[in-house]
Amino acid sequence: MLQKASDKHLRTIMLEEHYASPAFINGPGSTLKSQTPIPGADMPHLLDRLLDLDQLRLSEMDAAGIDMQVLSLTTPGTEQLEAGEAVPFARDTNDYLAAAVRRYPERFAAFATLPTAAPEAAADELERTVQTYGFKGALINGHSHGRYLDDPHFWPIFERAAHLQVPLYIHPTPPPQAVIDASYTGHFSAEISDGLATSGWGWHIETAIHVLRIILGGAFDRYPNLQLIICHLGEALPFMLPQLNLRFSQQLTKLQRPVSSYLRENVYYTISGFNFLPSFLTMLLEIGAECIMFSADYPFVSMEQAQTFLAQLPLSPADKARIAHANAERVLHL
Questions:
Q1: Mean pLDDT in order along the chain per 10 residues (334 residues)
Q2: Residue 151 falls in the annotated catalytic set
Q3: How many Cα atoms are found within 13 Å in the side-chain-facing hemisphere of 76?
Q4: Predicted model pTM
Q5: Which residue out of 48, 92, 297, 319 is catalytically annotated?
């Protein structure tokens, strides 16, 4: 068993690091065998790393100087499954991940996979994984069959997460097909359309829309202790925050707080492969170091690149420590 690296000055915890089970690769994630969400990536290389929850992953963590990964099932997750299939699949997937965390509790933590098509069952599965396995929350890949989480249909999940005091990580997923047809299919190749709808633009904008709908739908007023995490430097929300606050006044929204208050107090933000200094500094100025957490988006982005970006950030030692590990320890009760 590889031991945790001990010669680093700064502890590092990564929050958006993905895995896949064999059952997932042969089931809902079967498209990953032939195509990758990252254009030009070496899919066999990625599959080896997605499937490994032992020595290969640990050796690469050690080489990059990473103390802990918080693991989550890779895209497309289970959100597009029907309820009858999603419920047992999520349970089996979480049991599989729990075994890896038990093997390496100092190196791995976990976000649960939820059967969002069955919200009450999803809430129960969240509670089971938190109480039985010590999972730190759950990751949800956006909409479920085109239905967004601002729909009160899904709010049993919010209620349970708030009660358990664990966050929900809202992760990108391809937009609903009607949105792809209307907004991302144009007078260019299918390959460009696919990139525009996913990692080039649509993933990020759709996730931002999802979060705004949750805010404007009043979920945080109903569950004020609910905490969300989003990735990729906030999916453009920090850049748009002043305009959102200006456009959506409380007089219009009838919410208890300004939109900016929810974005600064109920939402946390990870770097996850967006190693872009000007964009990071915008987020830092709008959100503050207390709400930013480290991540790489492994194996789709290298941990070494993420670690280099973190090391070069023009931050005080205290703020760098917050982003590298202290915020994660606080939010996830690590």
A1: 50 97 93 67 85 97 97 95 97 98 98 98 98 98 96 98 98 94 96 93 96 98 98 97 97 98 98 97 98 97 96 97 98 97
A2: no
A3: 22
A4: 0.94
A5: 297
